[in-house]
Amino acid sequence: MLRISVNRLGSYARWFSSPAKDPKMLFEAYASTSRSSTELFMTLDQDGDGLLQKSEVVDFLNNLAGYHLESINKAAITALVMATKFGDSRSSKMVKAYKKLPDLGEIGAVCEEPKSWNSNSMAQNLRRMQYAVRGEVVMKAERLMSEGKDIIFTNIGNPHSVGQEPITFYRQVMALCDLPSKDGIDHPNVTSMFPDDVVDRAREIKEAIGGAGTGAYTGSQGVLSFRQDVVDFIEDRDGYPSKTGNIFLTNGASNGIQAILTGLLANDHDAVMIPIPQYPIYSALITLLCGRQVGYELNEEKGWSVSREQLETQLKISESEGLTVKAMAMINPGNPTGQVLDEEDVATICQFCADKGIVLLSDEVYQRNVYAEGKE
Q: How does it assemble (predicted)?
């Protein structure tokens, strides 16, 4: 007898909108997502005692006989084998039961003693995490490139990779910051090697971070003078007071998003509302952090706009599923749609979050990339 609790096989029951009684449908739902369900466990546990017996699992497998499984996630099949096997022997009754299903193929390897850190013992949230623009899409592109196809990697996030000449100012400033002062900003011929504005900016930065230059640890929030620059920018842009104590500098936007979501998502009932379509960093990190995503659809026919009715509907559905919406992401300008929300849409989102006590995550990484006439 194998002691597998409902919590183990049923921790992701919410992914299934309605119970399915057909064992084949249950297995397909389980295997296609790598997520288990309470319904699957209950189907296996025929006598309802909360434990799985060999005969119960064998009966379940026999019900799958003749079912075509070639399109199902092989990792998920392996996970089910590992969850229901009763021994590591290739000749065990469970292995024989699985081998009655020809579509499963040779599974002897998964019944060998696994390493202590393997695909089943690792964090399953990491396995479920999907970040297409840095994962699946890139792997497919690299495969096509190996076959001789000409691939343009526009996912790379750097226009230099597709032929744009670098803006030299930033690189020159970094060069002076990294060089020892005697070879850089204090060199007698520095102004003949670098433009004056580059030298001035490098001096400001080195005064802020110390003469040794880059590479040393800073406070967790970042260098104070840099945070003051951000405060000045926000106040100039928005006309609203800001404080350095509220500013956190991160290693790129992705790290910033992860830091915020890490602080927000306390358990697997916590959720974040994200726009659909959306840049996959949000769905990937929410999955990694055991949270749940609640999508709100952008209206393409109305310029990818947002309605209060849509937001209210999605919130109500999520609450009926036992979820607590902790935050809402607003991506403006949008990615991948490229739309710029109207002032009315922004006001709708802000008021909705204020009324519901939801943290608003305003993703404005493309704020300087607005080219449509009349948009800002």
A: Homodimer.
pLDDT digits (tens, 9 = 90+) for 42-92: 667 777 766 656 677 667 666 665 555 554 445 555 555 555 544 444 444
Tell me the pLDDT tens digit for each residue of 240-259: 999 999 999 999 899 999 99
* Domains, in order of start, for the chain: 6-122 (no CATH), 129-165 (no CATH), 173-240 (no CATH), 253-363 (3.40.640.10)
Sort strands 292-297 and 270-276 into parallel, antiparallel or unpaired.
parallel
Rounded Cα gap, residues 45 and 245, in angstroms: 55
How far is residue 65's CA from residue 299's CA, in Å, rounded to a whole number?
Answer: 45
Residue with the two structure tokens 């590992």: 82
> Alpha-carbon dihedral of residues 287, 278, 248, 223, nearest 10 degrees?
110
Closest alpha carbon to 278 in 269, 270, 286, 268? 286
HSE, side-chain direction, 13 A CA sphere, residue 72: 23
| C-alpha to C-alpha distance for 114 and 106, rounded to whole angstroms | 16
Residue type, 89: S
In this structure, what token pair is assigned to residue 43?
A: 């189907």
Q: How many CB atoms lie within 10 A of CB 180?
A: 12
